[in-house]
Amino acid sequence: MSSLPSMAAATTLAGASGGIDADEFAELVRAFNEVTARLESTHGSLQREVASLKDELAEAQSRLRRSRQLAALGEMAAGIAHEIRNPLGAIGLTLEALTEDLAGRPEQLELCGRVTRAVTRLDSIVGDVLAFARDTRVRPAASAVAAPVLAAVAASEDLVDRHGIDIDLDIDEDVVAEVDAALLEQAILNVTRNACEAMASHDGVRRLMVSLESRDLRDPDAGVIEHAVLEIADTGLGIPEDVRRRMFNPFFTTRAEGTGLGLAIVHRIIDAHGGRLDVESSAQGTVMRCSIPLVFRGERLEAAEEDGTSLGGAVRRRVRDNAGTAAGEEPDRGAA
User: Fold this and answer.
1) In the CATH scheme, what is the code of domain 141-293?
2) pTM here?
3) How far is residue 68's CA from residue 51's CA, in Å, rounded to a whole number?
4) Cα–Cα distance for residue pair 186/290, rounded to 1 Å
5) Per-residue pLDDT reduced to its tens digit, 5-27
6) How far is CA 320 from CA 128, 170, 286, in A?
7) Is 96 exposed, middle or buried (0-12, 13-18, 19+ CB in 10 A)?
8) From-to residues of CATH 3.30.565.10 in the chain
């Protein structure tokens, strides 16, 4: 910006030309400076808003990439689980027959029992994989969000009692959203049980804090709209940064047992509702925040859709085929 003329020079020019006097020129300079300051302030605000929008866009793109990756892994997992479950069914039937033949031979029966338990464990893992692989489209219905939240907390009572955990509830029972209550309860239960287990080895205060409220949040497609915001906080030791980056990846787990699919399933359920998951963690504990639009923004699953045209339908059909095979029926090869 070029320098302004001095007041003395302005007075001389004004007197020589018969134009504005010094006071008028000073007022003009003051008004000019005020406008410049407002423009600079507005420019700074716009820069901050653009930076914020860029961060939100990058975060939305990251969530979209994660959703696509989970969908691709789900499709692959469905095929693998199908191929594993078939021989597992045959092994289970053979073990039943062998157990009957070994009646009265306790040592051999003990060996059969070990194999049976291993088969049961593998079948449970396959079930988790199929749950993850299932097309997570929902049947939304307007309902109080508090119901699945409280049901999930109640279903975690065994861990709460076992580890001496105190529960603090701050639930707005007037929050109503278009959700699939059964799927939402499953997601909240996974998060709640994870929070309880995170405090199991913690010697300090063990407190599970669950809150639910409605809040206006920005949606990438719809702008600022009202969301149901559920926060589940624990007083555990927190999640290391390297684990936090991978915690929603399928088959990633820090536990000795488990498939590592619990949080991946949670992500797919919240994503299917058009919502988002955020995690904040420190040495004082972790907060998992689930935000779901009050008006459903995901992909619907119609009640009549059971024909196997989607990935979820294909998985359901394969499970039925496997069940029929185990019962001695011939699977429908033409529908595969």
Assistant:
1) 3.30.565.10
2) 0.60
3) 26
4) 13
5) 444 444 444 444 556 778 888 88
6) 16, 42, 40
7) exposed
8) 141-293
